[in-house]
Fold this sequence. Notes:
Distance between the termini: 92 Å
Number of helices: 14
Strand content: 15-25%
Mean pLDDT: 87
Strand order of the largest sheet: 10-11-12-7-13-14-1-17-15-16
Helix content: 25-40%
Number of strands: 17
Amino acid sequence: MELSPEAIRQANDFNMFSQYIHTWESRQFLNIPEKTIALFFGNQRGKGAMTCMGYIHRVMGTHPIPERNINYFECANGHKFSPSTWLNGLEMRYKDGLCPKCPRDNRKEVRLHKRGNKIIRFAGDILPESEGGKSGEADGSKEVKSVQYLEFMKWCPPFLIHNPLTSRKKQIGLYDPYGGDDIIFEFVSYKMPVESTRGHQRISIWADELGSEGFYDEQRPRLMIEKGDFIITYTVTEDTKSTILFDQIYDRAKVYYRSQFMLDEYYKKICGETKAQIERTNSNYSIAVIESASDDNPVLSTENVIEYLMEYPDPEVQMMRRFCVFTQLSSRIFPQFDWSVHSIDLKKAFEEETSRDKVVL
Length: 361
């Protein structure tokens, strides 16, 4: 079958996206069900690229977690399907339209989930700004962009872009491959008043680097209606404000994913600890943390990383930059938080305490 020139152009537009090099961490990232996912990565590990790769999968309907896709299908019994599994092209894979996961005597019709909106929020230090364009000029001017914007545009297939970002509207409108309203990626800055981000529901929020405690608190309610997810990407710096992420996210994680390099070179060699690559805790918070070092970037060598780190004379700063560990913050009390050591069973502790108070007559 011969492809049309338009089909060939669209296929070529996927060239950059098809070159993404998957690692153990990126495969785990795509399959994490927790509502908050924190990527604590060393410098130049590729946390932005990994996050954008995940969002393109959502747009295209190929994300392995059905409800993370912009469009997904579900039946009345709660079974969910991504477009890539329910559809064959734009036609239903199952011609009767009934759920293949339901019991035979109770098969329900599978329908497209109706979302209240198709808006994803990107939050960072700065907003994309135009430069060198005349007042009222269309987006043909050179632009100074946020890191998130640059990363997203790098991986997004160009044919999907319907309404590019302008100096007045800090958002990108993408064509929905499955029809309907545009998919909106909006940009907000930590410098904006927190109140300006209130009152609007979102499907997903990506917060890059370090925001304020008030900002994080205000984002979570924005995800409730759509049952959305919150992605945080951060590399630890000397900024003492990062205790916010240590206290609210790292300490509370339900599960930790650690790269093999982190296990061997940081936990075993530096800390003298043997850690599980996937460690589940007794935390009740729906938080997952992925830990990955600069050396885990498939296009970097350890020699490159060490050469870069030589610019930092302080060994603790080198560790923070390379392994993204909260060394200067957490070592005031403990070198590393451990749920098995630093948490207690409340019910057991209460029973033990009350048993001591009993008076034998």
